[in-house]
Write a structure and sequence with these properties.
The protein has 412 residues and is an alpha+beta fold. It has 16 helices and 20 strands.
């Protein structure tokens, strides 16, 4: 790579994984880097994500991995080509942190914790000369200068290039509040509306069902739902009944298509397979088996293990006549329709969709409307399910933006 102009200064705004990775690439490339964040410390959402076990990436084959980005797979592919799942693991190992692959294929740090990894990373960044400015909220521009609200009042600073890595709009209390959207729109940058992703949904359960089963997990279940491509998709996994709806990993994996259906039609339907280990023929055989004096509920528990929240779901979603018809009941055990009415608010979501449109970026991840300003991470218009895919693309996009800025600086 050609040598950078002397004293090239770059601002990175946002201290999440994408911003930190951009800062690392820039400092290693010879730039003087100042990283700004509105919060008292960096990586707050990263640390929260690792609270129950830091899932850093996924070990599945590259083709399947890339398809996890759905409608944006083609746009995300160049990021992953430069920094894929194995590169993420190698990078973590370079920080002195070992990793392992769990039974689900997910990749974790050896101690399952995010904090040691972040500490080692920040130490390396500081040793590389990155300057951190906390409690500095970006307010936009005054001419070419960046404006910041700081504890000491408003400040301005000029830079040769800027990386924006401000996150989406989920978990506002951790810094991702979407406040950057109007600032970019003022500069004629096309921004797709931000929307919840990896989110729960409302079903408006009855009080009777909600009071008895809110918080109950469904650990052996499958869902059939229509994806963003309009085709039905079936996934097995687990989710949780909430007071007003559903949430959990299986729901999150389907959330993009469900959210789009609700936006288009006002609701979305999922079909639950409450007995995924049994064929439809076997279920019909067991439901219609003579039960003597036993109630149907007792019969279902005895023959198919249907009890608790699964039994409650049947009563909630079927009429008395449907429950009393053996053939219709057997069919419902394999395809129980549940209507989802609303996505939960974006601030409750694990991540968000929408953001800076890909056609607003050039091949270097630079905003076409604002030369010298680059975008990375969740503030760009892509989404992915949980399982390490979100974090991998954030790392990879931050690296791409950092390299893009270095390329641009050498040509300027």
């Amino acid at each position: 790579m050609p040598e950078l102009p002397s004293q090239a200064r770059v601002a990175v705004i946002g201290g999440g994984p994408a911003g930190l990775m951009a800062a690392e690439v820039l400092s290693q490339g010879g730039a003087a880097v100042d990283l700004y964040d509105a919060m008292p410390s960096v990586g707050r959402k990263f640390l929260l994500a690792g609270k129950g076990g830091m899932n850093i990436t996924h070990s599945e084959p590259a083709l399947a991995f890339g398809q996890r980005y759905g409608a944006r797979a083609a746009q995300v592919a160049p990021w992953l080509a430069g920094f894929d799942a194995q590169a993420v693991r190698d990078w973590i190992h370079g920080l002195g942190v070992d990793t392992f692959v769990g039974t689900s294929g997910r990749v974790f740090p050896a101690d399952m914790k995010a904090a040691p990894l972040l500490r080692a990373w920040l130490q390396r960044l500081r040793e590389g000369g990155v300057q951190f400015h906390m409690r500095h909220r970006w307010l936009g521009w005054n001419g070419e200068a960046l404006r910041f609200a700081t504890p000491d009042g408003e400040r301005e600073a000029l830079f040769d290039a800027v990386i924006l890595a401000l996150g989406g709009a989920s978990w506002a209390r951790l810094g991702s509040d979407g406040a950057w959207v109007p600032l970019l729109r003022e500069r004629s940058v096309p921004v797709a509306p931000l929307a919840p992703s990896n989110c729960g949904f409302d079903t408006d359960w009855s009080e009777h069902f909600s009071s008895r089963h809110a918080g109950a997990p469904l650990t052996t279940v499958a869902i059939t739902a229509h994806g963003s491509d309009g085709a039905p998709h079936k996934r097995q996994g687990q989710f949780v009944i909430t007071a007003g709806g559903v949430e959990g990993s299986l729901i999150y994996a389907l959330s993009a298509g469900l959210r789009e259906q609700i936006a288009a039609s006002g609701s979305a339907t999922i079909w639950l397979d409450l007995v995924p280990d049994f064929s439809a023929g076997k279920v019909f055989e067991e439901v219609t088996r003579p039960r003597g004096s036993r109630s149907m509920s007792s019969h279902l528990q005895s023959r198919l293990g249907i009890k608790g929240v699964k039994s409650g779901l049947l009563r909630e979603c079927l009429s008395a006549a449907e429950f009393g018809d053996s053939a219709r009941l057997a069919a419902a055990l394999k395809m129980l329709p549940v209507t989802l009415k609303r996505a939960r608010p974006i601030d409750e979501a694990i991540s968000s969709a929408g953001g800076v449109r890909f056609d607003a970026l050039d091949a270097n991840a630079m905003l076409r409307a604002v030369p010298g300003v680059f975008a990375a991470g969740e503030m760009v218009d892509w989404e992915a399910p949980t399982g390490g895919y979100l974090l991998t693309a954030c790392f990879a996009s931050g690296r791409a933006a950092g390299l893009g800025a270095l390329n641009w600086l050498t040509r300027s």
